[in-house]
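Closing statement on the NAP sub-project.
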Amino acid sequence: MRTALITGITGQDGQYLAEHLNSLNYKVYGLVRGQNNPKIEKIKQNFPFIDLIEGDLLDQSSLVAALEVTQPHEVYNLGAISFVALSWNQPVNVGEITGLGVVRLLEAIKLVNKKIKFYQASSSEMFGKVREVPQTEETPFHPRSPYGSAKAYGHYMTVNYRESYEMFACNGILFNHESPRRGLEFVTRKITNTIAKIKLGKVNDLSLGNLEAKRDWGYAGDYVKAMHLMLQEDKPDDYVIATGKTHSVKEFCELAFGHVGLDYKDYVKVDPRFFRPAEVDLLVGDSSKAKKKLGWTPSVTFEELVKMMVDADLALEA
Ligand code: NAP
Ligand code: F7E
């Protein structure tokens, strides 16, 4: 039986990846942090097949111990401070966890067993002020936030450990991916959850920031499959994972409000508090390499994703 250790198990992707690996008969371990983390109980209830192990990307020896105890074939590093807006308020914390955390884990693997395969959750935020459209594995990085900068560091260190120590280390450069499990702080879930509350008479309006920003939004359940596929290849490499289509926040609103028979213009208020010091205006990825080499393609369209999220929030809030 193959064994995987996932950091970030309490997050959106950790949950989908754990389900996917379990369906492939993996033994799944998940790293959890904190002395009384409320998310741990939920994971225990909803995913009883996951074995939880304590550790923190800030603590080197806890990572070494986690690897020694679990002896995984594959490690998926999904743990991070992942909210871009927060990264301007806590740049050092983001550097420590989202950036240096990658190196702590790579060092732990080098020490415990160099044969462990490693997946790093890289991000389209590294492209930032984009140098070309669409973005590929060859597009230069120009991060626009402490988060994007920390991810770029983690990305290059993953390449560096691959080239220096012949470790099987891959970067998945994933574009935005969403689901009913997305955190409420991200714009898609903020919109769909507030629509449900408006529909049920719990709130009256929705305050957002920049409605013009464009993102390449896919479904998280599709994207975790690409993570696993990368580690099954003969050679480690980096891959862009995206749908190839881009939509503005405004378009997301139009579709999501429209799905419940409302006009977004009657409810959405633009609030300067939600604008960022530097914006990433347009992201759209070209995942032809992943299609050709991994046989990966997304299965859920933008329209299906928006409806899935609105319907899930209506059920949740009812
Ligand atoms: P998420 O829902 O925000 O989950 C982040 C996870 O990181 C949580 O489980 C969190 O645990 C954990 N974490 C935070 N600090 C940690 C620490 N010091 N030590 C160990 N774990 C820690 O993120 P996601 O959407 O699932 O994304 C997964 C990964 O992919 C992240 O690295 C993200 O940056 C990256 N990514 C995401 C997207 C996307 O669109 N979703 C796109 C590209 C890349 P707690 O519960 O303890 O806070
Ligand atoms: O913002 C705009 C905001 O916070 C998307 C993370 O998973 O994907 C995610 O990062 C856009 C931005 O995601 C609000 O300015 C407008 O242009 O949902 P988001 P993100 O910043 O793209 C990447 C790939 C990651 O790697 C990250 O970990 O929406 N926007 N109004 C707003 N955004 C938020 N959050 N809230 C608003 O009110």
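The radius of gyration is 19 Å. With this model delivered, the sub-project is considered complete and its resources will be redirected to Aim 3.
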